[in-house]
Amino acid sequence: MAINILAFGIAKEIIGQSVVAVAEADGMSVGALQLLLQNRYPALTRLSSLAIAVNGEYATAGTIIHAGDELAIIPPVSGG
Q1: Cα(48)–Cα(10) distance, integer angstroms
Q2: Beta bridge mates, 5
Q3: What whole-number distance in Å separates Cα of residue 45 and Cα of residue 50?
Q4: 12-26 pLDDT, tens per residue?
Q5: Burial 10-28, CB ≥16 within 10 A → b, else e
Q6: Hey, where are the domains in the chain?
Q7: pLDDT digits (tens, 9 = 90+) for 56-68
Q8: What Cα–Cα distance (Å) separates residue 39 from each residue in 9, 17, 79?
Q9: Among 3, 6, 59, 56, CA closest to 31
Q10: Residue 7, pLDDT score
């Protein structure tokens, strides 16, 4: 089952769309998902930071993803 991941800001620009489906994400750790996304979209590795949120909360690399989770890629945020 594919899990849809929402992309925001520069991550959305790099990926080329606001939602990316990852078929193999169910049961994967957030750290493994981040590596998978960086392999698919190498420009993501150039970002100073990249966070992944699961169900509205920032996730650690060890967080396990389950079918039905809401995921979001959060690029570096700057402001003034």
Answers
A1: 11
A2: 20, 71
A3: 9
A4: 999 999 999 998 888
A5: bbbebbeeeebebeebeeb
A6: 3-74
A7: 999 999 999 998 8
A8: 19, 17, 29
A9: 59
A10: 95
The count of residues in the chain is 80
The model carries a pTM of 0.88
* CATH dotted code for 3-74: 3.10.20.30
With 0-12 / 13-18 / 19 or more C-beta atoms within 10 angstroms meaning exposed / middle / buried, residue 78 is exposed
At 72 the three-state DSSP class reads strand
Helix (H) or strand (E) holding 6: strand 3-7
Is residue 52 within 8 Å of residue 33, measured between CB atoms? yes
Q: Are strands 3-7 and 71-74 parallel, antiparallel or unpaired?
A: parallel
Q: DSSP code of 71? A: E
**Token digits for 65?**
């993803």
Nearest by Cα to 6 from 73, 78, 51, 55: 73
The single-letter code of the amino acid at 40 is R
